[in-house]
Records
---
Amino acid sequence: MKLKEFLSVREIVFDSVNVLNHPTGLADLRALGARSVPVLSRGTEWVFAQNIGHVVKFLGLNEATGPVLSPDQLVARLDLILSTAAGMIPQMPDSHLATEVPNRPRSYKVLSHHIFQIPDVFLDVAAGETLTYELLAKPPPDALHGFADVAAFGEGIRQRLLAWWAAKADKSGKEEVQTYYGPQTLHETLERATWHSGQHVRQWAMLLDMAGVVPDRPLRPEDYVGLPMPTNAWDG
């Protein structure tokens, strides 16, 4: 299901493209009372668009929503995504640490760390923390000097994920967790963490190509099957 297929001229999608590039985008977003994107608005009413179920309810649609993959399948998929990232990130020359990604003021170093920050924050949320935008946007620690350091950091997160899942007695994913876009099930939050990191790993393979480096065993199209991946690899 693609969100924009259901929108009419009465609704506005606030995402990173129109907020960053439109002269009044940020002011319009703030006027609604929202502090992060994506947001779907109709007049003065709005909803965070991180959860497609919330969007479907907001639009009054009769559409089935919810994760396609089971929690166990999502953990396995996230494990693959993180191991792929840990292998490809050190391929990027450290001379690109401060280079910015297309269409966004985000450095390669920040993006590489963000791939692993997403599941790191997810694990904190699973343990009782509230998911906030600030936690997801947390900058890389000073100790991460180069891309090899980021990959080693990420491998630690991957091992933490596997240990958490192995020790977890209830693997249904039905428990509720708290996020800045409202209460979610653990299952929904795990799905979002999985495709979110997967989207950035897809971008990383493209950045390696742009740098003239052949990605080492990048993710394949079949590795994204069952995940609600964005149509575009980059904003805009």
---
Amino acid sequence: MSGLVLKLSPKERVLVNGAVIENGDRRSRLSIVTPNANILRLRDAIHPEQANTPVRRVCYALQLILTGDSVPEEASLPILRRIEELSRILTDTDSRRHLTLATEAILAGRHYQGLKALRTLLPREDRLLAACPQ
């Protein structure tokens, strides 16, 4: 059996296809076997006020698709444009690889994988922004 395996801490919450699910008092493991299910760990969620950098804004836009607050067909093109803008700034090989993975995932309708690829860029963006004088 393949699919996504979620390992949840006690009382951890996860959003699955728009429904918030809270784990019980013990660690547990869930296997999501439905392909293309929209999954978001609420501990990883970006709140609107945190979407204040270029990468965080794109991640937040993808997150809105996963939560059902945006229509994928309408939101994907603006997200792809933002990723293109990021590719002009983040020109190193590793960043480009993650941006390419995100683009391919979004084009294939795999928004969770796109979000996952972009989230790897958050620490890099934080370092770059910290190095720039305000």
---
Amino acid sequence: MNENPAKSSSKRGKIIILVAPSGAGKTTLARRLLADFPNLTFSVSATTRPPREHEIDGKDYLFLSPEEFDQAVANGEFLEWEEFYGGKRYGTLQSGVERELEKGYFVLFDIEVKGALNVKKKYGDDALAVFIKPPSDADLVQRLKKRGTETEESLQLRLERARMELSYADRFDCVIVNDDLKRCYKELADVVTSFMNS
């Protein structure tokens, strides 16, 4: 995680959660926030899926065996975790997050909707939960198709999941529509700045 000394003095940090349906631009927005805010560090998720070629254990993900993941669940070590297609599991270990908060960093989460609401419930006013919304279903379909990585079946699964996620949007602190990336990022950066200074 980030070792940049420009953090929020000796004060304990807070949590910023970004949630969006697949294809709504969340990863691009998260990268820009991390580049623009030196006191922001990324929460590295644990997963049971095998690493991809370019991925580094501890930087991209914490790669756990299914048995290690089970043990961490049994020990209550996760802030949140979820199982996805094909039985792969992802989760956030509380120890790593707490370590960064104690150093005074703001910790950025890029997680799924139910996990986000669990983290928000646990941290209350010390967590800002932002939902990034596509302008429409049709726009989301176009963005997913443009990636060129979706089969018709996986596209349908992602759309079903997106509709489920969108049904939770009103439970978030803030909803930002990504109809224009530049405008969306400015709105997000303003909200984050205000939260960091509160």
---
Amino acid sequence: MTEDRIVKSIELNAPVARVWRALTDWREFGEWFHVKLEGPFAVGQVSRGQITHPGYEYMNWEAHIVRMEPERLFAYRWAQPISHDKEFYPMDYSREPTTLVEFRLEPSPGGTRLTVTESGFAALPDDRRERNFRANDGGWAQQMKNIEGYLAEKP
């Protein structure tokens, strides 16, 4: 059985307000996350876009924004499709199970400690639980590097 949650933390050399903006401004989020979003994030709304990472441009991005507590917590639910392979990739996420992604910010001596937690894998169907957990674990490791690099380039 795969664990239920992924947790990744990083110390960022930027103030909390700057990290918050990189997370919650839809244009900035899109730059480091590699997604072209259609518009701003709003609690209770669905955010949609297109992945721009080379080789994954066929993938949609869709997240239900569940919480935005300024400079503390940004959270959304997103779908866990049966496959990320192009030939099996669903273009409609409405029936796919979801996991919860939470970005937590805390002041630290060097700037900001950012922790991302994705939970809910234990509730996924057997045919995707372990594969999605592994894929997302690697994906979050990369996204932490992405936001770190982005903030270094655009302080």
